[in-house]
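Sat 14:20. Reprocessing the chain from the morning session after the first attempt stalled halfway. Input below, unchanged.
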Amino acid sequence: MGAHRATEHDGDDVTETTPDDETRRNPGAPDLAADTAVAATAGERTRSMAAPGTERPPLPGMEDTTNRGVDRGVIIGQGLAALARWSVRGIVVVLALAGFLYLLGRVWVGVFPLVLALLVTTVLWPPTAWLRRHGVPAALSAIIVLLGSLAVFAGVIAAIAPSLVDQSGEVASAASGGLTELQDRLGAPPFNVDSTTVDELVSQAQEWLRARSGDIASGVFTGVSVVGNALVTLALVLVLVFFFLKDGPNFLPFVRRVSGRTAGRHLTEVSVRSWNTLSGFIRTQAIVSAVDAVLIGTGLVVMQVPLAFALAVLTFFGGFVPIIGAVTAGALAVLVALVSQGLTTALVVLAIVLAVQQLEGNVLQPLLQGRSMQLHAGVILLAVAAGSTLFGIVGAFLAVPVIATVAVVMRYISEQVDLRTGDLHADEVPVATKDGEISARQGELAAAGYVDQPDATTLAEELTSAREAQDEGRRGRSGVGSRLARTVRSARAAWREDESRAGSGASS
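Finished this time. Tokens:
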């Protein structure tokens, strides 16, 4: 019956009374329980007779809802507004990136030699810097190093040439013998292909070649054009490398003069970090290619395959072109083994090449490059796959340096943000230059300017505010209970006083 309870605080005693208790103790008191029951029965009867969907709430204007705090529409609207702002920013960034890639494609003929020259300069700069530290003029040191590197390359080619001349005849005769053996095997069971059929196949192949002589000629001219472009690109790369070696240290001061003091410091730090990362990439790739060349060359020597040294050197240079270079060098090694030593040796060489390539792709390259460039192995593999898919061999070769440079820039931006939020101190930043140290100090000092902003709160301040709000809520709930108890006691005291006055009036 009694659904409404009143709490009475008398000193330390707490008692709960219901409308039924008041009625039994005071027969003259109104029967609140009965009135409540009658009202509930009438409300149920009214709702049962109403049409579906037209039931009125128990009290007019007091719909039953779970949203008793701030209107959910306000919160959702603010969230959608923030999402819209970030979406517009993301669209602007994507459009800017698309425009940059479009312009890069238009000027790629000039950008590609520049990128290659930078990569070559990272290899040749250490000996150049050593010569300059020992008093050799800049131009002379650049010429010495550049000519010395060309001499080393020419020496390697000269070392390969004798073995090519001496063993090429052996390989050619072995290939001829292999073709003769193949023809004999085709004539034996279970193939049973006679010499007439083979001659017809050869004639058909000759007719196919004659029919497509025009395409072949155009392909030859295209190949000549490609070779010509490659020679021009090579000459341009050599010229750029010379100027980079000679005037490279003057580049960063020029950037600081043009961009200004603050921006120049950031650009200097990022440029030096990117340079160090590219140098680490070239060194790591050279180590990986050398391991491939040694292992595959050793396998070829053990299997007594001709041109083992030449194939090992080709494997080393092919290792600088991811995927395509290793596959081409390995396929050539298997082909030489097939025509010179037979099918069994070719299968063994194929197994060696596959094992070495698996070691390179899954262990050496991700491990060494991930350590030198601070990139995860999965990121490197995805970068090579995306670069080769979008831009072919050139994309596969440049994918890792590009993604490493992007990672350097993103890491530097993250450091600057952490300095301004107070999560990082200048002493904890691994700087590469004095300008980077100054920028880190300025970033830490700039953190004080963000503290006064309305939305800029630290984690400690948020936790303190949450605790204060929780304590305030507890005090508010306890205050409501106390006020309710005082109201009930005051009402009961007034009612008793009225009863006593009525009784005294009746007795008089």
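Residues 1-19 have pLDDT under 50 and may be disordered.
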